[in-house]
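Write out this protein's structure.
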Amino acid sequence: MSDLPQHIAIIMDGNGRWATRQNRPRTFGHKEGLEAAKRVVKRAADIGIPWISLYTFSTENWKRAEEEVGFLMNMIKTHLRAELAFYAENGIRVMHMGDLAGLPSEIASEITDIAQATAHFARTTVVLAINYGGRDEIIRAIKKLPVDMREQLTEATFPHYFDIPELPPVDLLIRTSGEKRISNFMIWQSAYAEYYLTEDLWPDWDGKNLDDAIQYYRNRDRRFGGVK
C-alpha cells in the first residue's frame, strides 16, 4: 500500500520489567525480546515495509551491570549467525548502524559477516543499531567530512556521512513500555517521524501490535511544517 511507512524505527523497551513481572532474571526478558523482534520483523516483511530499524544496544547501555552487558553481547554474537535461515526464508537483508570499532572484535566480525551473507536479500532491510547513539553518529559523521566540503554542507548532503547513507528518514517511531523519550535514537532521521508510544512491554509484541501502530500512522496528517 502506498500509505505504508517506508521506514519504521523501534525502541524495544521493557524486557527487564517483563522478566521481573514473571519473577525471572532480566536476561530471560532479553531472550523473549528477541522472539518478539522476529515476530515483528516477519510481519513487516510480509506486508512490505522496506526498512525497519531496531535499537538493539545503545552507547549508554555499557553503563548497565557487567553481567547483563555480557549476556547481551553473547546473545548478539550467538543469534546473528543462528538466525541466517530466518533471514533467508523472509528475504531479510541485515545492516548495522553504530560504532563498530567500539565493539569487541568477535562481535564486530559477526556483524560484518551477517551483513555480507544477507546483502543479496531484497524484501526488507533490518537495521540493527548496536553500540549506537544518535549524537555519536552525528559526531562521527562530522569527523568524516573533508575540510573543503564544510562550507557547502547542506541538510541533504550531511546524511551521506552517516552510518547508512541510503537509510531513508524515519516515518514511524515506536517505543514500547510507556516511556516517552527517544533516548538518543536516530535523532536526525526522526526529525519528522510520527511517534507511537505504548504501555505494552516489548516481549508481548507480535504482528498485531505492529498492525495497530501502522494503522495509527496511516491516520496521521503529515504536513512536515506546511499547511495543506
